[in-house]
Amino acid sequence: MSASLFFIAIMGCGEAEAPCQQVQLLETQYQSQAACTAATEMALARFTDVDFPVVVAQCVARGSTAKLGSSDVRLPEPAETALYPRP
């Protein structure tokens, strides 16, 4: 049984139920999904100029295709801002 290699797919996501589109598949190979997942945040930081409202990274096994719907993406919670400073 051969072990799978994992790659990071950079995905651009729009609004509503439109599927996300793969923008790039990074060349770095990871021996496990856990190692791949641990590297996604740093990899994603390099893609600040992608023309999509939301950009995410997803680990995919060699030979697989990244599939992700906009509704599958967890967006960060908006930062709480106070209109008036608390005393």
List the helices and strands and how they pair.
Blueprint (H helix, E strand, L loop, with lengths): L5 E8 L7 E5 L7 H12 L9 E8 L26
Antiparallel strand pairs: 1-2, 1-3
Describe the structure using short key phrases:
87 residues, 24% strand
Structure description:
- The protein has 87 residues and is of the alpha+beta class.
- The chain has a domain of 60 residues.
- The protein is 14% helix and 24% strand.
- It has one helix and three strands; from the N terminus they run ββαβ.
- It has a three-stranded antiparallel beta sheet with strand order 2-1-3.
- A hairpin with a 7-residue loop joins strand 1 and strand 2.
- The longest helix is centred in the middle third of the chain and has 12 residues.
- The radius of gyration is 16 Å and the shape is globular.
Percent strand equals 15-25%
- Major sheet: arrangement of strands: 2-1-3
Series of H and E elements: EEHE
- Radius of gyration over all CA atoms, rounded: 16 Å
Distance between the termini: 64 Å
Uncertain runs are none
